[in-house]
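Technical annex B. To support the medicinal chemistry partners, we prepared a structural model of the target in complex with cobalamin, based solely on the information shown next.
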Amino acid sequence: MSKKLIEAMADLDEDVVLEEVKALKEQGVSPLEIIESLQEGMGIVGKRFEEKEYFLSELIMSAEVFNEASQLLGGVGQAGEAKNGVFVLGTIYDDIHDIGKNIVTTVMRSNGFEVIDLGVDVPTAKFIEAIKKHKPKVVGISCLLTTCFDNVKECIQAIEEEGLRNDVKVLIGGGPVDEATGKYVNADVIAKNAQNTVDYCKQFVEVN
Ligand code: B12
């Protein structure tokens, strides 16, 4: 990871972030590695927000800097032939964070999955409808707010009540999500980044 990039992202120093992203790209560092450093920097932004060193305006700014930086990366791959099956994902209702979800969408598409992205603030009924319609093997739920963990739990429970839980693996992700969250909401797997998601889904597709 690039310490310079992590620090510049954490300090919201847009010029340095963009310069460093360009430099790393020129050195041949992969887009996913660059994103990892940006994600680490965003984690620090979050901590500073928690500690009241940063305010909402800085959170908004961090999203802008991150998006500018990812544009320089020119996307994290081209969508290939969708040979690995369907992956439905969305950010759970009451949560509008979408940067991580969008990265997962792009990386999954470039790894041969057909991705149905339901967007943000997605109600349970929309997940259920999409599972019935697209019959995915894996469903991904993004959640960045601890206050929304119960929404994820409710959504997974509803998938079960509809008799669909045995047909799909449920993968959850997002900054504050950990193994304990996974157990609490009854997810199959938690994914810390887009590469984990791809690895898990590929392994799952092969097994079946
Ligand atoms: C940017 C940001 C925002 C932006 C979001 C812009 C956008 N378009 O997404 C804005 C300003 C809108 C925002 C708003 C708020 N935010 Co905010 N935000 C962040 C911040 C700093 C970065 C998030 C981010 O984009 N990270 C970079 C991406 C690349 O990382 P990622 O999301 O983790 O995604 C990766 C993995 O997690 C995984 N992944 C992600 N999703 C998925 C999904 C699946 C299916 C899978 C498999 C994998 C996966 O793969 C991704 C790529 O590697 C985080 C801090 C943090 N530590 O995450 C706080 C944070 C999430 N926000 C927080 C808060 C409190 C809020 C607000 C409530 C603030 C307020 N007072 O209004 C609002 C809530 C709005 C709402 N209803 O959703 C808190 C949540 C605390 C908590 N305990 O719940 C955090 C943790 C900051 C903090 N430490 O206090 N926020």
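Notes passed to the chemistry partners:
Residues 88 and 139 are 5 Å apart (CA to CA).
The first strand starts at residue 86 and ends at 91.
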